[in-house]
Amino acid sequence: MRPNGPPLRAGYLENIEQLQRRLNRPRAGEKTHLWIPAGMSGGHTRALPAGVEVATLPSPESGPNRLGPGEFVVAGFARGRFPELLERMDDVRVVQAISAGVDDLVGRLPESVILCDGAGIHDVPVAEWVVMAILASIRNLPQHVLDQQRAHWRQPGRADTMGDLEGATVLIVGYGSIGRAVEARLAPFGARFLRVGRHAREGVQSVADLPAMLPQADIVVILLPLTDETRGFVDARLLSQMRSGALLVNPSRGAIAETDALADAIGSGRIRAALDVTDPEPLPDGHRLWSMKGVLITPHIGGWVTRVYERAWNLVEAQLQRYLDGEPLLNVVSHGY
What we know:
The protein is of the alpha/beta class and 337 residues long. The protein has ten helices and twelve strands. Helix 3 crosses helix 5 (177-186). The longest helix is centred in the last third of the chain and has 18 residues, at 308-325.
């Protein structure tokens, strides 16, 4: 793996030997077929190893009925009908997503295909979005932007809530690579941290400990993948356990939160929220979350930065080299993670 590539995920394989057998590496002298989304290359294909044949994925409505050998396929961001393309390929072995979340692909690919997610690609931009959203929310930036548009110079009064991060307790739920990136960027502000993961480990507590931790947190950051286990995880009960006035930050998946329960909690004034994702997405016109005081909404742009494809290529090249060298792949998805 290249030094600037994404980090290796601990426990990323259940059975390396079984995976190696399933991958059935190509023999020496054979071409390796790599399929990439339209518009992704940006000149990066020049750095690929010799013997790799690159093709661009057509739209599901176009191209021949049979696309030929698949082998190693990169799944882009717009992939509602992506599994249909795989059905038109032969011998697909690996699907490498360039998004951290793969809930839309889990269970929709042939069992013989190894699915790898894009963990590591979005650590920096999503962590920066979290910092931006927290600061904008606690300093009431949305209201100031509205005042600017109205050419209204309104200085805050005693009733306006304006906070800062020094000494604030930030609870990170789903403490992985993005969670570590969030913590690294908030620590210089003087924040303190509580961490929750799927399994307890040193410095990280389990989900079972959340009821005791939520009342301690000024800010709760949700960084969970969407699975059957986490769908609706942020429900009325969890929201009721949050400290009054706390901020909920969700850049992960909208369906992790129950929308009505979230809107009720915000509408009551108990909590505030910063959301990069919603359920449904996008929110329909007239939905109450649009106009609620105490909520900041952005249109699922946490990971969208200029360098996203550069970082994606770093991972694709590392994975492809591992595939060719017969080494274990990174970020292999098991049980939705």
